[in-house]
Amino acid sequence: MSPAGAAIHSADQAATTLITIAPPPRAGLACYCRIPLKWLVFAVVTFFVLFPSPAQLARHIAHLRDMQRMIAPDEPELADLEAQVRERLTTTAPADRDSPAEIQRTVERVVLEEVQYAWDWDQWGSADYMPTVAEMFDRAAADGRLREDCDGRAVMAASLMKRLGYEPTLVTDLRHVWVVTPQGAWMGPGGETTMASGDEGNEIAWGTLLSNIPTSLSFGVAVFPFTRELIILVTAYLLLLHRRMSRPAAAIGFVLLVQGLLFMRLGFFAPSAVAREASSWPAWVGLLHTIAGFAVLMRASRRARNADYKPAS
Q: In what order do the strands lie in the sheet with 177-181?
């Protein structure tokens, strides 16, 4: 081979080596675009699984931002419930008819009897929704039956109590919503208060916020439809998979995610008689399993992506 031919042959070999070692530019760009695209897909799926109606979610957030404004004593539909309360009070001892405590107990009984308990996903189709008094009566117009969960019942009871001349506030521990008046807490008081309504807006107890999140999250996962939760879990799992991912790693990651979900669901059923904190440990275990599952899948996926760009031997 002539010197010129040898030089050309060496240049071709060097160019081939560089092309082999360096990842294709398009592949690198696709990798950077793929990650935010996967996050977007996951966010969209999760959003519509939890809140199929964006407009309803916007109303829910507006209602939660100022719970005191949810108390609506002037709603005309409350007249029938007020009449029931006053009629029942006539059957009590004359000395108790004007007792705030007795009036409060009567309001509570009427609301619990007249407002049938129903989960928000059955009543409104969403993971959570705090309706106004008018919305509750509008929804009941079809069959004449009021249906709501704890927040709707609390709004109804507080509105009725306000109509009778008392000053109620709405309180939540992130898992349950109840009512507080100067006579005490009622409508099934929950744990330590996280947020309470007030004339100046909501008051947040930051000290109990973090401690209440695991238990409330576990409660929400425990009672939410399992099928909807599986849609979110499977979506996350499929988005983390890679065609060259290790099969054992993919299996371990899936098992950890499922275990995390099951522990979160078990948290609500954990006995709380031993200690108040007892009901939160399954939630923490579930969170750790979920994080571990994501970590295993992300590491295996990254190794598989790196193998795509491994230099040829």
A: 184-186, 177-181, 169-172, 195-196, 203-204
